[in-house]
């Protein structure tokens, strides 16, 4: 996304650090200090991002609790704050592109934040225009309607602001103190042969599963910037493993009136998700992504390869302690957390406003998604799904927003059809009002047309699996 690539030097330094740490003997890093530096922050990170807690009868994670708590405190001011942030981002981007003030372009972080490509500069400006029109409820109703810009600004953007704030601040607890090295090493034997991904990607998946897909996108983007993932790996993880949380799955199945079927529903979603995760990355466009790191260098081997004489557990422990030993200054960790939060808030929120609103406008005011869904009628009839014509209307509309298929399915009589629509909408994963816009606004190397093609492939692969399970259940 950025014209300059300040991550390259950071990546080269990380590679040097990894190469040097792999030559360390266990006794070189085994100390009480390193053990505590590994365990305490990592356990706090696991608690915040990956530990399910029950709040008001719903499963969530502590980071989400903090985000919703802040959202409640902000109340209506949250919308004003988000509007200000998006406008500020667009103005600073224009100032940087047109005037190029030295205080910004000579500062690595500020330059990476505001000196973006022309396409992203335009996107931020469009997001600012949309948010101003929506905030003041002026201009075309198609933009500020409660089903388009109003939905993004009032319901989604303030929550994302709070999630980005806490997730960005606390993310270094997961990635900087050895947890990913430990998990990555122990999970390599599963993730490499099954998904052709580094073992550490399992953490991205689990954090999304119990928490929020936006957390998975944030983690994936940062891991790519730091040189842990190649272009292909980052694109695959971002479009495959930033899965929908249990909480949102409960909302979807409740919307179609099938709460009693939640367990078979979520089991079907998991099964279809695994099948899609195995198949779709082996097809274009994901299979065409290069195995190159952010600095253009190719992967020459897996960073979690186990040396002779080591077990996955012992070597993972060694790498975790070696990674923890590199943390010398708490101020650097705090600074990185602040940078993470600022980058996501100023960089991604304008994209969500621009692309999310545009996608919802297409869904609300044009027949495009209905037309695109028509070819699914023969497939649905072949799979013996009742009300195939009505169901086809929901097949592609989920690209705009994941919740739209469930809303459209409410009027369908067949429980089996509503079940299929609900499960498919969750499995499709990529929707432009949030995850798609987040991916485009992040450093993950994917384009809009690629996201739409991946969305269609996920739909085609998942639908037969979901239909088969539905016939077994109903």
Question: Could you please describe the fold and organization of this structure?
Answer:
- With 474 residues, the protein is an all-alpha fold.
- Helix content is 70%, strand content 1%.
- Strand 1 and strand 2 form a beta hairpin.
- The longest helix has 36 residues, at 330-365.
- The radius of gyration is 22 Å and the shape is globular.
- It starts with 6 loop residues before the first helix and ends with a helix.
- Mean pLDDT is 85; it is low at 1-12 and 14-26.
Order of strands across the main sheet:
1-2
Query: What is the end-to-end distance?
Result: 47 Å
Tally of separate helices: 25
Low-confidence stretches: 1-12, 14-26
The 3D shape can be described as globular
Largest sheet: 2 strands, antiparallel
The amount of helix comes to: over 70%
Q: What is the tally of beta strands?
A: 2
- β-strand amount: under 5%
Please state the structural category.
mainly alpha
Task: Report the C-alpha radius of gyration, rounded.
Answer: 22 Å
* Element-by-element helix/strand order: HHHEEHHHHHHHHHHHHHHHHHHHHHH
Quaternary state, please?
single chain
Give the overall pLDDT as a whole number. 85
Transmembrane segments: 35-57, 77-99, 119-138, 158-183, 234-254, 260-280, 345-368, 388-407, 419-440, 452-473
Protein name: Nucleoside recognition domain protein
Keywords: Membrane, Transmembrane, Transmembrane helix
Organism: Ferrimonas balearica (strain DSM 9799 / CCM 4581 / KCTC 23876 / PAT)
């Amino acid at each position: 996304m950025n014209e300059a690539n300040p991550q390259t030097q950071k990546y080269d330094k990380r590679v040097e650090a990894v190469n040097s740490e792999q030559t360390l003997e266990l006794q070189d890093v085994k100390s009480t200090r390193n053990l505590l530096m590994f365990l305490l922050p990592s356990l706090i990170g696991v608690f915040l991002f990956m530990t399910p807690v029950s709040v008001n009868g719903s499963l969530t994670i502590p980071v989400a609790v903090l985000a919703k708590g802040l959202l409640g405190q902000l109340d209506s001011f949250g919308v004003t704050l988000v509007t200000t942030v998006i406008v500020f981002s667009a103005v600073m981007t224009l100032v940087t592109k047109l005037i190029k003030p030295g205080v910004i372009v000579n500062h690595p972080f500020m330059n990476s934040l505001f000196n973006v490509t022309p396409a992203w500069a335009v996107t931020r400006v469009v997001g600012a225009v949309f948010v101003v029109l929506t905030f003041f409820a002026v201009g075309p109703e198609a933009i500020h309607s409660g089903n388009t810009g109003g939905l993004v600004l009032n319901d989604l953007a303030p929550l994302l602001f709070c999630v980005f704030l806490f997730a960005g601040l606390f993310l270094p607890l997961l990635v900087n103190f050895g947890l990913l090295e430990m998990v990555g090493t122990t999970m390599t034997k599963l993730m490499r042969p099954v998904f052709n991904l580094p073992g550490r990607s399992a953490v991205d998946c689990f954090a999304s599963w119990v928490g929020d897909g936006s957390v998975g996108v944030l983690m994936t983007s940062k891991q790519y910037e730091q040189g842990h993932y190649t272009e292909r790996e980052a694109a695959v993880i971002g479009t495959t493993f930033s899965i929908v949380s249990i909480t949102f799955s409960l909302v979807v199945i409740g919307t179609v009136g099938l709460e009693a079927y939640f367990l078979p529903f979520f089991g079907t979603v998991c099964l279809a998700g695994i099948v899609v995760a195995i198949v779709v990355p082996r097809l274009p466009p994901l299979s065409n992504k290069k195995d190159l790191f952010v600095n253009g260098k190719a992967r020459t081997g897996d960073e979690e390869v186990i040396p002779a004489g080591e077990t996955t557990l012992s070597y993972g422990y060694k790498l975790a302690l070696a990674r923890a030993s590199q943390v010398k200054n708490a101020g650097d960790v705090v600074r990185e957390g602040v940078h993470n939060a600022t980058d996501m808030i100023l960089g991604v929120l304008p994209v969500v406003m621009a692309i999310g609103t545009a996608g919802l406008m297409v869904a609300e005011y044009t027949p495009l998604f209905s037309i695109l869904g028509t070819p699914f009628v023969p497939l649905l009839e072949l799979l013996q799904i009742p009300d195939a014509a009505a169901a086809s209307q929901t097949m592609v509309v989920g690209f705009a927003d994941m919740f739209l298929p469930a809303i459209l399915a409410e009027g369908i009589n067949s429980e089996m059809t509503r079940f299929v629509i609900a499960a498919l909408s969750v499995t499709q994963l990529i929707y432009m009002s949030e995850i798609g816009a987040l991916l485009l606004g992040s450093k993950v190397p994917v384009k809009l047309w690629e996201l739409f093609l991946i969305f269609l492939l996920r739909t085609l692969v998942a639908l037969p699996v979901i239909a088969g399970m539905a016939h077994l259940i109903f």
